[in-house]
Amino acid sequence: MKRVYVNEEWCLGCHLCEYNCAFADMGGVSMASALMGKEIHPRIHVEEGDAITFAVSCRHCTDPMCMKSCIAGAIYREDGVVKIRRERCVSCFTCVLVCPYGALTPVEGSPMQKCELCLSNTNGKPACVTGCPNHAIVYEERGESL
What we know:
Shape: globular
Number of strands: 8
Radius of gyration: 15 Å
Strand order of the largest sheet: 1-8
CATH class of the largest domain: Alpha Beta
CATH architecture of the largest domain: 2-Layer Sandwich
């Protein structure tokens, strides 16, 4: 299965992946008009360290701990993509605690959120991949199981 991978050595820490992710989720014709003056809630997050920056998003694990631990049954798999049924999520934070990648994020007043690859919103590639100016984020199959 194809997954989003980050080549840390190429990440500029520009956060454009976050804006492209938020735009893909919100929709609209123009990114500026869709996001201007709004608080964004991207499903990918750039982490910045002293010597390295990298984007963190869901790995869509083969055996996802978040799905196993979800007490409400809100997390499920569809065509290999791990998704959240937002109407079922009770915001118990169990998925946040068990995810080894830190890929699930709470949003105040809303259910958990995570990367669902936004393939239906884009041209067959996640928005974070197409919006990365340095090609640090790729969408490919590597044959490893997570």
